[in-house]
Design a protein that fits this description.
The chain is α+β, with helices and mostly antiparallel strands. About 30% of the residues lie in helices and about 30% in strands. A 4-stranded mixed beta sheet has the order 3-6-4-5, sandwiched between helices. The protein has a two-stranded antiparallel ribbon with strand order 1-2. Strand 4, helix 2 and strand 5 form a beta-alpha-beta unit.
Length: about 100
């Protein structure tokens, strides 16, 4: 069973995912970007998925649903810049995954 923690934002009255710590992904085999991530999820190669909290929900929510359906670990990170930096790229990333 996979559990995603949520906190309540009283100003906007909406649910915001809690962020965990982000490991250095440069030493691991990763895919970056929503399209490549969906391919990795559907092929069964994705082991752990990272989504940026400040990314467009139209990109992140479908991926989060796929992760839930396939029981793949999902971690939310603070920003696209943080995720891009952790992956070793110069631009922000909305989504990334550690693959086998």
């Amino acid at each position: 069973m996979r559990i995603i923690g949520f906190c309540m934002d009283t100003k906007k009255d909406c649910k915001i995912p809690k962020c965990g710590s982000l490991p250095d992904l440069r030493e691991k085999k990763v895919v970056v970007g929503a399209k490549q991530l969906r391919k990795a999820l559907h092929s069964g190669r994705a082991q752990q998925v990272f989504l940026a909290k400040n990314a467009d929900p139209a990109i992140t929510q479908p991926i989060a649903s796929i992760c839930e359906d396939l029981c793949v670990r999902l971690d939310w990170v603070r920003s696209m810049d943080d995720l891009g930096h952790a992956c070793g790229i110069e631009v922000g990333a909305a989504a990334a995954a550690v693959v086998n």
